Structure formats: C-alpha cells, structure tokens
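Agenda item 2: zinc ion complex prediction
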Amino acid sequence: MEKVHLDGYNKFKAEFFGNNKELFDKLAKGQNPHTMVITCSDSRVQPATILSTNPGDIFVAENIGNAVPPYDTMVGDSTQAALEYAVVALKIQHIIILAHSSCGACAHLYHEPVEGEPHLKHVDKWLELLQPAKDASLLEMYADKNKNISEVTEKNNLKLSLNRLMTYPYIREAMDNGQMKIHGWWYNVGTAKVEVYDQATKTFRKK
Ligand SMILES: [Zn+2]
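Presented output:
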C-alpha cells in the first residue's frame, strides 16, 4: 500500500468514519440514494464534494465525457447498467448529468492525431458517442465565431446526454408518473459556479 493512499484512508477512518458511526451503521443495512449523478471521470469533478453529500446519498456513474449511450445501443455498457439499476431497482428521484469546463473528452473530439503520440483506441471508440455534440457545436460556431468552442461543445454534449436519457422507456415512465426528474448542470472547475439547463426555455441559467 502506498503512503499517499494509506494516509488518506487512515484520516478518513479516524475522522469522518469516527464521527459518523450512526450513519455507517445505517448504511451497513442497505442504500437508498435520492439522486443518480452521471459525470465525467475527470479528477477535478467530484460530485460528492460539489453536492456536499454523504455516503449513501448519491449513486454515481462516471465515464469519459459524462456520456449516455442511446437506449438501443446494447453493448453491455456500465453506464446503461447503472441507469437501469438506479431507476428500476433503487427508484431514485433525480438524475443529474454533471458536465464541466475544460473537459478533455470534448477537446479530444477536435484533436488531430500527431505522428508518434500514443493511439487511444478505446477512448476514440467511446468518444464516437459524442460526435453529434461536435456536429451541433461546429454549426453553432459557424453562426457565432465569438463563442468559446470548448464551452459550446461541453454544453451540447450535456444536452445530448439529457436527450438520450429520454430514449430509455423506464426513464420516460418514471418521469411521466412523477417518480423522477432529470437535470443538466455545467460546472466551472475554476470558479465552482454552475449553469443549470432549463429544458423549457432550452437555455442555461447561472446559479
Ligand atoms: Zn470531462
């Protein structure tokens, strides 16, 4: 075990665990999270920190670029499995797609391969899911070149993931019967500000 990991674990056990015995006794019996968060694997985006949640509060699925595969993409994907379990078995009440600024996945969509650099074949394959966000962003940039292409792509990718959630029959059903709501957040890594997507007006609102 490396010191950096052991020191962190010992601190957690002595402090957070030590001060929250009741919570951990309850968690030992099962989980009942109210929210699922689908976010990017990026190390700067930690949903439990950003939402100030405790263990047991949020059910998290992380992947490169906070992507949601379309429902009919039956490839045994872990995000799809996590969605199904969260909505159908755990009956969570909210799904948040948590996107973020300076997302490497969105930037990689525009990357031109350079000779000699490592070939990221799994990343490239996964990022095919984000291609519609790139297409929409190029159109948007064509109309207004003053926009920031990173932010435009991150926000279009967020909207793509939200739209794809609606292709899942059990998500539609849970929303129609009032069990669940879906939300889209774009989080600024440098300022901690968020912009929330308003699906009625199709605009982002600063919070
Ligand atoms: Zn990212």
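Discussion summary: The two ends are 41 Å apart (CA to CA).
Owner for follow-up: CH.
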